[in-house]
Amino acid sequence: MADNTNNTEDKVTLVTKDGLKKLKEELDYLRDVKRKEIAARIKEAISYGDLSENSEYEEAKNEQAFIEGRIIELEDKVKYAKIIDEKKSDGKAVQLGSTVKVKNKTIKGSKAQEFVIVGSTESDWATKISNESPVGKALLDRRVGDKIKVHVPSGLVEYEILDID
């Protein structure tokens, strides 16, 4: 018989303190501001009469569904948030919360880049990379001077770790 219990470990959201603060701010904004705005839009659209051909009503209801879905998603992320202990790293190996300076060895003359290793919730496409991304996974537990090869959408890239903060 299969075990149907929810595994909370699978739901854990790894975030920095700042990342958790941003999640909570977005959640509060959606609950306190956007919900009221959409409710007012729906009320106004209902006042126009026939709902079967009321595009304002349909649009507001669709936005309401999206906002409610996002609220549920954020509530779950906040509920299962685990703060990344940025002080935990000894500065010698890359961990969650580490700022890593790397040099792309594949491209001659390329400038050093800095990445912050974060949970997937906080990642962006520029400076904060997820520990679940190919580059993030490859950097974890590595040390200054290590060279890693990573398959990315543009092909194979080799990085050298220059510094870990």
Salient structural properties:
Helix Hairpins; 7 strands; 4 helices; five-stranded mixed β-sheet; 22% strand; alpha/beta; single chain; Chitinase A, domain 3; 2 domains; 165 residues; 40% helix
Explain what the structure shows.
With 165 residues, this protein is of the alpha/beta class. The chain is built from four helices and seven strands. The strands form two sheets. It has a five-stranded mixed sheet. The protein has a two-stranded parallel sheet with strand order 1-2. Helix 2 (17-47) runs antiparallel to helix 3 (55-79). The radius of gyration is 22 Å and the shape is elongated.
Provide a quick synopsis of the model:
The protein is of the alpha/beta class and 165 residues long. The protein has helices spanning 8-11, 17-47, 55-79, 134-139, and strands spanning 13-15, 81-83, 99-104, 113-118, 128-130, 147-152, 155-164. It folds into two domains: 8-83, Orthogonal Bundle (Helix Hairpins), CATH 1.10.287; 99-164, Transcription elongation factor, GreA/GreB, C-terminal domain (Chitinase A, domain 3, Roll).
Write the SSE topology.
Layout: H1 8-11, E1 13-15, H2 17-47, H3 55-79, E2 81-83, E3 99-104, E4 113-118, E5 128-130, H4 134-139, E6 147-152, E7 155-164
Parallel strand pairs: 1-2, 4-5
Antiparallel strand pairs: 3-4, 3-7, 6-7
Helix pairs in contact: 2-3
